[in-house]
Amino acid sequence: MLPALVLPSVWVSAGGMDVTRARELRTQGTSPQALDRLTRTGQLRRVRHGAYASELGADDLVRHRQLIAGTWPLLGDLAVLSHATAGVLHGLPLWNGMLDRVSITRPSGGHGRVRTHLRVHVAPLARSEVTEMDGFRVTSLERTAIDLARSLPYERGVAVLDAALHGRADRTAMTAIATQAGRRSGVATARAALAFADGRSESVGESISRIRLCEAGLPAPELQVDIFDEDGNWVARSDVGWVSRGVLGEFDGKVKYRGPQEEVATVVMQEKRREANVRDLGWVMARWGWDVLGDRQTLRHRVEVAFGQARPDKVKGFAKVCDRY
Fold first, then answer.
1. Those residues with Cβ within 8 angstroms of residue 59's Cβ, 6 or more apart along the chain or in another chain
2. Which residues contact 274 (CB under 8 A, 6 or more apart)?
3. How many other C-beta atoms lie within 10 A of the C-beta of residue 45?
4. What is the DSSP string of 144-195?
5. How many Cβ atoms from other residues are within 10 Å of residue 123's Cβ?
6. Predicted TM-score (pTM) of this structure
7. Of these four, 22, 76, 118, 139, which has the most CB atoms within 10 Å of its CB?
8. pLDDT tens digits for 74-98?
9. Distance from C-alpha of 88 to C-alpha of 83, rounded to nearest angstrom
C-alpha cells in the first residue's frame, strides 16, 4: 500500500504568493491585451479564471493556497473554508486528488455543488466551529478533522484525527461535533475513527501501522517508547513497543532517506548506530514499511518472529512509555 500523500510543508501566505485578480490589474492600467501578452510570455501565470500570479507554487499545497487567494474574494460573507482546504491551513495530512478545488461550507443556500474551482458544502456551523487564519474564515481544527473523517475511508480518517489530536485538538469537542452531525453521511466512520485515534502517533505511517497491527490480531502496542540504558541515559525512542515482551516496532517510510547523498549516508549510519545500541540492551526490533503494511500476514509474521526471538528477562536498562502528546 503506497498512499499518495500530500503532507504539510512550510506554508507561504496567500499575500506572499502575489495572487492578483484581473480587476486589480486593470485598475493598475493593465489592458486585456497586455494581460493576454503577459500570460502568453509566462510573465504571469493563471491561477484560475480572473486570478494570476508571477509564478505558480512548487507543490500542490502552495498551489492550493494560491487557488484560495484567487477564489476567496468571490465567495461572499457566509462562506467558510472547510474540508480539505481547511486541512491545508491547519496542516493536516491530505491525499492527491483532494486539492483540485477550494472547499467551502455555507450554513444555508440550497444543496452542495461542485464547480470548476469550487466545492460547496451546505451545513450548519456553530460559532465555536469557525475561526480566522491568515485573514480567512476557516472551520476550526476540530470541525475540519471530523468533516474530513466523514468523507475519507476509515484508515485515512484515523490518520487525520491522530494528526489533529497531535496538534492539540480537543477530543471532547470532536466527539460533540460528531454527535451533533446525527446521521449525516460518513458519521459512523468518523466516530469509529475517533474512538481509535491517538495523538501520540507522529505520522500517517504510524497511524496506519496501528490499524494494521490491530487487524492482524496482534496485541495493541504502546506508543512512543523511550529506551534508557542502565545508567539512565536516553538511547532512543521507538514508534511502538510491546515493553513486557522486550520488542520494539518501527515504521520505516523512507522519507528520512531522501536528500543529498552525503546527508542520506549520515542519516543511515545514525539509524544503524541507534538500532545497534537498542539491540545491545537486549531489545528486539521489528521493522516494516508501506509494502508490509499492505500485507497483514507478513506484518503479523514479522512481529511474531520478534516475539519469539525476544528475551524480556535479559533486557538491560528500562523503558518509559509516552503518556501524552
1. 6, 9
2. 235, 236
3. 17
4. HHHHHHHHS-HHHHHHHHHHHHHTT--HHHHHHHHHHTTT-TTHHHHHHHHH
5. 17
6. 0.87
7. 139
8. 998 899 999 999 999 999 999 989 9
9. 9
